[in-house]
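Entry type: protein chain
Record version: 2
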Amino acid sequence: MTKSERKATLADELLSDPVVRQYRKRKVREIEERNRPTGNEKRKIKGCQTYKRAKQRRH
């Protein structure tokens, strides 16, 4: 690798490497899937305030 092909820092070198980029994308996707809420948890994200009733309930 010539001096002009080198990046300024090691971090820049790793960020530009296609193998590391694919690994990083895969790992981020796995973590997001693991942390994604499932089933009833999706409703809890929006909160109860977003659900508005068409009519008020009778008491």
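Comment: The first helix runs from residue 10 to 16.
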